[in-house]
Each structure stands twice: as structure tokens, then as C-alpha cells.
Design a protein that fits this description.
The complex is a heterodimer of chains A (about 110) and B (about 110). Helix content of chain A is about 0%, strand content about 50%. Chain A is mainly beta and about 110 residues long. Chain B is mainly β and about 110 residues long. Chain B is globular, with a radius of gyration of 13 Å. Chain B has no helices and 10 strands. Classes of the chains: A mainly beta (about 110), B mainly beta (about 110).
Chain lengths: ~110, ~110
């Protein structure tokens, strides 16, 4: 079954404690991306990757890091989380070609206190 | 900076009516246009895609595209309470990041 898997799905953490949200896809997709979603602000892109070892900043990259060492994995790293990073996070993947469906993970609810 | 504009709503329609959702975009290089539906707290799901000017129908949904006007719309006929959700517009150019509009919230009352 084609899927994008994110972990953890729910997390409450404290300010400054490094955390990683993992994302894995089983469709051999080149394109992967992270979004955060906040009330009234829609889906905002954090980082995206067009292929292994190729990553680019999205609209709101501050406070986040990513890496793409393998095609299937695209972890999101919060080195020093702050309360303004409390949000719902989605990982997504697709082929590079235009017109192809983007697949979303189920989302990760992150609360930073 | 690519921009995708949608009325945030809420758009309220009675059950059985036609709901009309609109989207304008700034990137003239966009080749594909997607409409996603998102229920609160859930991940977005693709409901329509359109690539050429004109209309594309799929069941109760019709997408309309006008590239010259940089405008894409989604019509939902015979609206049902289960259609109540946020609808996200996403124009896309191959090889670039997929950017979404902020979405229009639709409320269908029974």
C-alpha cells in the first residue's frame, strides 16, 4: 500500500529539547516536503527536497533543519523548539513530474511548552 | 514569491445547492492545478486535478481553468453536509515546490 508515514503523531515537549519528526515513503518518490498548518494560515511549506541530497527552503524554514540522505526518508529536525513551533505538521511526497498526486502523511501534532 | 489567493470563507450553502470556490494564482508557469479537500485535523486529500483550459467534470465536482486570467475554480453540485471542509487550491509547475492557498472553508447546512 502506498503511504507516507510520520512519527510521532502526537508529541508534547519542552522548550529547547531537540526533537526529530520522521517521515518515510514507500513509493520511490523524488519529491518530499514538510508543511506546517496553523489556524487561518493554511499549509505553509517549511522545506522541500527534489531528490537525495537536494533540499531547499520553503516559506517558513526558520528554526527547522532537514536532511535527505536516502530517497525514502525526510526527517524534520527542531534543534531548539520554541512555543511558536506548536503546530500540526504534514509530510508529503510525489514524483517530480507535474500532474502527479501528492501523498500526505497523517500529520504530527506538536506542542512545545 | 508565488502567490495563491483564495477567499477564506466561510462559504455557507444549503444542502442541495451549488458551491462555487475560486482561486487565483501568480505563477504563469503553472501547468497543473489541484483541488484538495481537508477535514479538520486530517491530511488533505486530492479531489480534482485539471491541466487544460476549460471544464473538467468528475461526479458532483467540476473544475474550471482559465490560464489567461490565472484563475481556477471548483464547483460542487448538490452539496451535501459531508462536503463541509476546507478546500485548498494548488497550482503547480513541474520541478518546483507545491504551494497551497490558505483554503476556503465550506459549510453545508442540512
Amino acid at each position: 500500500e502506498a503511504q507516507v508515514t510520520q512519527n510521532p503523531r502526537y508529541l508534547i515537549t519542552v522548550t529547547g529539547k531537540k526533537l526529530t519528526v520522521t517521515c518515510s515513503q514507500n513509493m520511490n518518490h523524488e519529491y518530499m516536503s514538510w508543511y506546517r498548518q496553523d489556524p487561518g494560515l493554511g499549509l505553509r511549506q517549511i522545506y522541500y527536497s527534489m531528490n537525495v541530497e537536494v533540499t531547499d527552503k520553503g516559506d517558513v524554514p526558520e528554526g527547522y533543519k532537514v536532511s535527505r540522505k536516502e530517497k525514502r526518508n525526510f526527517p524534520l529536525i527542531l534543534e531548539s523548539p520554541s512555543p511558536n513551533q506548536t503546530s500540526l505538521y504534514f509530510c508529503a511526497s510525489s514524483t517530480r513530474d507535474s500532474g502527479n498526486t501528492i501523498y500526505f502523511g497523517e500529520g504530527s501534532w506538536l506542542t512545545v511548552v | 514569491q508565488k502567490e495563491v489567493e483564495q477567499n477564506s470563507g466561510p462559504l455557507s450553502v444549503p444542502e442541495g445547492a451549488i458551491a462555487s470556490l475560486n482561486c487565483t494564482y501568480s505563477d504563469r508557469g503553472s501547468q497543473s492545478f489541484f483541488w484538495y479537500r481537508q477535514y479538520s485535523g486530517k491530511s488533505p486529500e486530492l479531489i480534482m486535478s485539471i491541466y487544460s483550459n476549460g471544464d473538467k467534470e468528475d461526479g458532483r465536482f467540476t473544475a474550471q481553468l482559465n490560464k489567461a486570467s490565472q484563475y481556477v475554480s471548483l464547483l460542487i453540485r448538490d452539496s451535501q453536509p459531508s462536503d463541509s471542509a476546507t478546500y485548498l487550491c494548488a497550482p503547480h509547475q513541474a520541478g518546483t515546490a507545491l504551494i497551497f492557498g490558505k483554503g476556503t472553508t465550506l459549510s453545508v447546512s442540512s
